[in-house]
Amino acid sequence: IVEISETEAAGSVIAAGSRTFDSPEEPSQTGPKLKNAERRLYRGQRRVVRRRAQRMAQIRALFHKAGLTKDQLRTALEGNGANPWQLRADGLGRCLTPKEFALALGHIAIHRGFRSNSKRDRASNAADEASKMLSAIQATQERLAQWQTVGEMFARDPEFVNRRRNRAGDFTRSIMRSDQEAEVRKLFERQRQLGNEAASVALMASFMEIAFSQRPLASSEGNVGECIF
Q1: Would the pTM count as exceeding 0.90?
Q2: pLDDT digits (tens, 9 = 90+) for 166-187
Q3: Three-state secondary structure string covering the chain
């Protein structure tokens, strides 16, 4: 500890300096990138996988309680060679067995479609990737007008028969969650008309609540303070 007098403290500079830090960026082909960007990406992916697993566990429990599956284990929704896309299309024209109905609905729950709460994604200055995806979704919705549901389109439209998943930079297989919700309502309606006793309104409501739930945006009200002016 260095003791200094009041005169020295008031009339002279005791010490001065600055600390410098390396930039928290690393070079990339598209320009400098924050080092934590990759960690944030992986963390987001882990969150998506975790929440999907939780959602599907609830779906399996619901199906088992409704008598569609023998148990609620992870293997309960294994198709053993059955094509869930084809079952989603067949469900519009014939009565599905309990297991087939569970496979069709479970497939929708896994691939439940895109929904964004971001206003930026819909703005004119949206990121290039988001803009491409929204344009692809719009084109898919225009093609969907020729079919009853998303499942029927992907099962029978020659454009989608050979490939139903997106590729890097190609979002032409993207669908809206609202279109999936409409398919669930249509599928339940047709199954009831065809005599499927499992296609109850109560089961549809429970399934919709679990399969398409999304956490609300966190409120920022607590971060807003009074203006200092």
Answers
A1: no
A2: 888 788 888 889 999 999 999 9
A3: CCCCCHHHHHHCCCCCCCCCCCCCEECCCCCCEECHHHHHHHHHHHHHHHHHHHHHHHHHHHHHHHCCCCCCCHHHHCCCCCCHHHHHHHCCCCCCCHHHHHHHHHHHHHCCCECCCCCHHHCCCCCHHHHHHHHHHHHHHHHHCCCCCHHHHHHHCHHHHCCCCCECCECCCCCEHHHHHHHHHHHHHHHHHCCCCCCCHHHHHHHHHHHCCCCCCCCCHHHCCCCCC
